[in-house]
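Section 3.1: Structural characterization of target chains.
Under the original work plan, the team committed to producing a structural model for every single-chain target entering the pipeline before any wet-lab resources were allocated. The record below documents one such target. The sequence was received from the expression subgroup and is listed exactly as submitted; it comprises 306 residues.
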Amino acid sequence: MEAPPLERKLAAILAADIEGYSRLMNADEEQTLATLTSHRTIIDGLIESAHGEIFGTAGDSVLAEFPSIVHAFNCAIAIQQAMWRANRPLADKHKMYFRIGINVGDVLVKDGDIFGDGVNIAARLEGLADAGGICVTRGVRDHLRDRVDTTFEDLGEHQVKNISRPLRVFRVLFDPQSEPSPSAELTSVQHPERSSWVDQTLPEDQDKDEARRVEVAFWEAVQESDDPAEYLLYLKRYPAGEFAELAAARVAQGGSGAGEPGIEVSFWETVRDTGNAEMIEAYLSKYPTGQFVELAKILLADIHAK
């Protein structure tokens, strides 16, 4: 049986886990499971109200995808504030605190689950967060900086497991005792397609400034990457975008994964689907003996003949 195809997309990812979960289970397994069930009911409801989709809930962890960074961020704040309230009636030894990491990045979707560096980075950020705290990447901070009334503390660069390049990490400074409000500053929650930079489709001649802002934020999130796959993702979403030529050039220059066969295939699929002569020439320049050279030449000739 043929394996189901992998879907690649850009997503806002929230990863959370419980600080000291093993210690809590060892001390009082029954009470810990009861508290976890109660807390998870609250968390799952907040994620759903923020239009998030839960993908992983193994043990003490939560993995969710959101239609925009703002949705993920506001949901994370609301979760931590709700957990502060839920913990208040509990004895100190039974209090349960979550750590949250938020990333925006490339993910692979297969069989109803998500994988890839985008997910892994969110999980590593979660591990850097304090109990009851939130950590985000620079790309997330840059996107949110002018859109939320929150301060970010720069924690510098961190080298984390299974991620080739250092991560610039920021701690979110917020008041955990404030009233949870996952919909705060989310005037577009009722119309998530308008706020999503993953599936956003703006009407022609309408909201052009917003469309450009989304594209620029997308580019800022990937522009310092050395992974060609991230530039391919930009090109797939914005084949005629403001940074398309630069993105194609960076794919052609290569990166940490440039020698992998999958990179060539992904690049070719993006090039083929756009029908853009400059991008086809970029493919031929990068892969002069590649497996799609003849097809590229035929496609290029057809374009020039029109």
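The two ends are 41 Å apart (CA to CA).
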